[in-house]
Design goal:
The chain is about 40% helix and about 25% strand. It is an alpha/beta fold. It folds into two domains: about 160 residues, P-loop containing nucleotide triphosphate hydrolases (Rossmann fold, 3-Layer(aba) Sandwich); about 70 residues, no CATH class. The strands form two sheets. Strands 6-7-8-3-9-10 form a six-stranded mixed beta sheet, sandwiched between helices. Strand 4 and strand 5 form a beta hairpin. Helix 5 packs parallel to helix 6. The relative contact order is 0.17. Keywords: ATP-binding, Nucleotide-binding, Transport. One of its GO terms (molecular function) is ATP hydrolysis activity. InterPro entries: AAA+_ATPase, ABC_transporter-like_ATP-bd, ABC_transporter-like_CS, ABC_transporter_ATP-bind, P-loop_NTPase. This is NitT/TauT family transport system ATP-binding protein.
């Protein structure tokens, strides 16, 4: 589904060249959920932006479905920490915005989008404005907006971090179930290790200065085949958390020493 080959990103200023990420090579299989974790400044969001086509790599190549990625692709959906719903548009107009921009808005795609809105518990909010919705409802609307054009790859940049804990847990389950039902491929950037374990098939740990892949963890089958809430309560969750946490702590210590 997705292949990154020797990706490097360098930011140039008048005086310096800063290497954000270097020598990043990885693949994501069709239908797989992969999470990126690591210390702040290790290039997770930069890498996600390159996969989205919002930034060009300085060197290296990104392939999606065996085609070289050059710029933004309609096959990609992006969900951010903030919902970025336009306050002057209704929820219906907001969630159909991607369809309008891509020229995909028809009576059929509009009907499918409204059905998805109903499935996510917002069927009675289609004519409401964003200010009338809670934070969790707004993120659900942002999820519908992302899914409406039916992208094959979903990029999630800390989409639950601004929510209260209870809402966050509910949305994790909702997003996970929805993506599995639609057989979507997803890449999540998160600082929450519990979230990464609960939602992922694989977890990629990055180290910084510059950002490189430190280790890739395959989430055990008994965890990845459950819903995020069930995974968090599974007997083996804690020991697996500790295993990755120790490696993450080593990376954080190295990051602090280098800065």
């Amino acid at each position: 589904m997705l292949a990154l080959q020797e990706i490097e990103k360098i930011y140039f200023t008048d005086e310096h060249a800063v290497r954000a990420v270097t020598d990043i090579s990885l693949t994501v299989e069709d239908g797989e959920f992969v999470s990126f974790i690591g210390p702040s400044g290790c290039g997770k969001t930069t890498l996600l932006s390159m996969i989205a086509g919002l930034l060009d790599p300085t060197s290296g190549t990104i392939f999606m479905n065996d085609r070289k990625l050059e710029g933004y692709s309609k096959e990609t959906g992006y969900m951010l920490q903030q919902d970025y719903l336009f306050p002057w548009l209704t929820i219906r107009q907001n969630v159909e915005l991607g369809l309008v921009i891509t020229g995909m808005l028809t009576s059929e795609t509009s009907s499918k989008t409204m059905e998805l809105l109903r499935q996510l518990g917002l069927g009675d909010k289609a004519d409401a404005f964003p200010s009338e919705l809670s934070g969790g409802m707004r993120q659900r609307a942002a999820l519908v907006r992302m899914l409406a054009p039916e992208p094959s790859l979903l990029l999630l940049d800390e989409p639950f971090s601004a929510l209260d804990y209870q809402t966050k847990l509910r949305l994790e389950d909702l997003v996970s179930i929805t993506l599995k039902q639609q057989r979507k491929t997803a890449v999540l950037v998160t600082h929450d290790l519990s979230e990464a374990i609960a939602m992922s098939d694989r977890i990629v740990l990055f180290e910084s200065n510059p950002g490189t892949i430190r280790h890739t963890f395959n989430v055990p089958e008994e965890l990845r085949t459950r819903s995020p809430f069930e995974t968090r309560n599974h007997p083996s969750f804690h020991s697996y958390f500790q295993k990755i946490w120790e490696e993450l702590e080593n990376v954080e210590t190295q990051h602090q020493d280098s800065t």
